[in-house]
Design goal:
Number of strands: 11
Number of helices: 0
Shape: globular
Largest sheet: 7 strands, mixed
Strand content: over 45%
Length: 124
């Protein structure tokens, strides 16, 4: 069982930056791949970024590539999402999730554990 708690969301102007954090409970955090997903009002939840258990491999949605960076600190049981050059279309609730497997890291349906989400609002 893994419990996830996101933080770091807020209101920011277009072009600004935010760093999201996701703190995980449990001693097996390092065995999980971690992902960030987001859901805007009236839209489906979508993949944003993922990182494998060791941090050696990262994956990004085309819409955030070059602007967002996912990282993890296994000693702190925490995964981060650094978001730069934010756009109004990045406005959404952002969720972190944990995935026990080593493949399909971009697939929402493969993630077993989810946090409650944190709101990110980007004003124009």
């Amino acid at each position: 069982q893994v419990q996830l708690v996101e933080s770091g969301g807020g209101l920011v102007q277009a072009g600004g930056s935010l760093r999201l954090s996701c703190a995980a409970s449990g001693r097996t955090f390092s065995s999980y791949a971690m992902g960030w997903f987001r859901q805007a009002p009236g839209k489906e939840r979508e993949f944003v970024a993922a990182i494998n258990w060791s941090g050696s491999n990262t994956y990004y949605a085309d819409s955030v590539k070059g602007r967002f960076t996912i990282s993890r600190d296994n000693a702190k049981n925490t995964v981060y999402l650094q978001m730069n050059s934010l756009k109004p279309e990045d406005t959404a609730v952002y969720y972190c999730a944990a995935h026990r497997g080593i493949v399909h890291l971009t697939s929402l349906t493969k993630y077993e554990y989810w946090g409650q989400g944190t709101q990110v609002t980007v004003s124009s």
